[in-house]
From TrEMBL:
Superkingdom in the source lineage: Bacteria
Protein keywords: Coiled coil
Keyword Transmembrane helix on entry: no
Residue intervals of the CusB-like beta-barrel domain: 213-278
InterPro entries assigned to the protein according to its UniProt record, in alphabetical order: Beta-barrel_RND_2 (IPR058792), MdtA-like_BSH (IPR058625), RND_pump_MFP (IPR006143)
Record GO cellular component, one term: efflux pump complex
Name recorded for this polypeptide: Membrane fusion protein, multidrug efflux system
One Gene Ontology molecular-function label: efflux transmembrane transporter activity
Organism: Pseudomonas pohangensis
Multidrug resistance protein MdtA-like barrel-sandwich hybrid domain ranges (all copies): 76-196
Stated family: Belongs to the membrane fusion protein (MFP) (TC 8.A.1) family.
Length: 369
């Protein structure tokens, strides 16, 4: 036997293994000593009370912002079309040029229209004389009421014909209905324009519109007249006002149209640009908490675990509002709440716990991490 033990001891691997075994037994024995830290740490568990960490959180003013993918639009866009036919003899303005209300954009040949106006005016004057004479004869009892009515009918027809001829002459000049910019001229000088033919496209870019769509969960928080902001792709920011909120959702997207408006006196902002519109909602009191503290109850509703004055666990339902620098903003907690931050997964609603208070974190408004 001694020879066998000597042979084992002479093997280096056996000696190392024996040394490791002795060290492991000594370490295990040290953990079982009375008054050790292990027993101290489980003292609350022996008493049937779970130890948790918690800190007080206080509500802050939170104004969430709705981000809307939008585009710029002209306040007014019209296609100016001819109301009479004729040859284009003048186009005083060029594409991209600013115009004032009443400026001529397209001028058609008048041809014999001025002569027709003269003819119609003479006919109207003659009809007026005949009607005046009929009235005098009627007063003298020398003409019937029927004859007077016929003279009045001829006078009215002559006046209507004159007005029609004057309007046809005036329509040879197509004028700008409002101040704006000429976006397109459709016909060159010398071309023939049919009745209803396109003369020009006129845009009114002051003010400029920002148009987008918002979801049905967001539209109820918006109000007409509230402040808005539009961010262009080049980084420029434009202050605007929300002027329109749609009342009917689109059949395909179930979203509502919204429009914001901003001054654009120099027409620097073009129509059709892609922008991001920021719409701040009404400010409300909310709490900023780490998203890792959110949990679900048996019904699948989201909430957090808090402590009451008796250090009993409560599960409080919350509503998510948005992201914060510290996690998420939630609604539904008291103004000042003792929130369980460590050990919340080991406690249940109504249980009593042993609390270790933590220092409060910086508020989200202070940029806490």
């Amino acid at each position: 036997m001694n020879a066998y033990l000597k042979r084992i001891w002479s093997n280096r691997n056996y000696r190392i293994a024996l040394l490791i075994l002795v060290i492991a037994l000594a370490w295990l024995a040290s953990g079982q000593r009375p008054g050790s830290s292990g027993e101290a740490e489980t003292e609350s568990q022996v008493r049937g009370i779970t130890a948790v960490k918690a800190r007080y959180i206080t509500a802050e003013d939170y104004a969430p912002t709705v981000k809307v993918r939008a585009r710029t639009e002209a306040a007014r866009r019209v296609e100016l079309r001819a109301e009479t036919a004729g040859r284009l003899i003048a186009s005083p303005l060029a594409e991209g040029q600013l115009v004032k209300q009443g400026d001529v954009l397209c001028e058609l040949a008048t041809d014999d229209r001025p002569l027709r106006v003269i003819e119609a005016r003479s006919a109207a004057e003659q009809a007026q004389l005949e009607y005046d004479a009929s009235q005098k004869l009627r007063l003298g009892g020398h003409q019937s009421q029927t004859a007077l009515a016929a003279a009045k009918s001829r006078l009215d027809a002559a006046k209507a014909n004159l007005a029609s001829r004057e309007l046809d002459l005036a329509n040879t000049r197509i004028r700008a209905p409002f101040a704006g910019v000429v976006e397109r001229l459709d016909l060159k000088v010398g071309g023939y324009m049919e009745r209803g033919g396109l003369c020009a496209v006129l845009l009114d870019l002051d003010p400029i519109l920002f148009s987008g769509q918002v979801s049905e969960s967001e539209v109820g928080h918006l109000r007409e007249g509230q402040n808005a902001k539009a961010q262009l792709l080049d980084g420029a920011e434009i202050a605007a006002k929300l002027r329109f909120i749609g009342r009917e959702a689109g059949n395909a997207t179930r979203t509502f149209r919204v429009e914001a408006v901003a001054p654009n006196p120099d027409y620097a902002i073009r129509s059709g640009l892609t922008v991001e519109m920021l719409l701040p909602l009404v400010s409300q009191r909310a709490h900023s908490i780490p998203s890792s503290l959110l949990a679900l109850d048996d019904a699948g509703k989201i909430g957090v675990r808090t402590l009451d004055a008796s250090q009993r666990v409560e599960f409080r339902h919350v509503q998510l509002l948005g992201d914060s620098p510290n996690g998420v903003w939630v609604l539904g907690l008291p103004e000042k709440t003792l929130l369980i931050t460590v050990g919340q997964e080991y406690v249940s609603n109504g249980s009593t716990v042993e609390v270790s208070l933590q220092d409060s974190e910086p508020s989200a408004s202070q940029g806490g991490q």
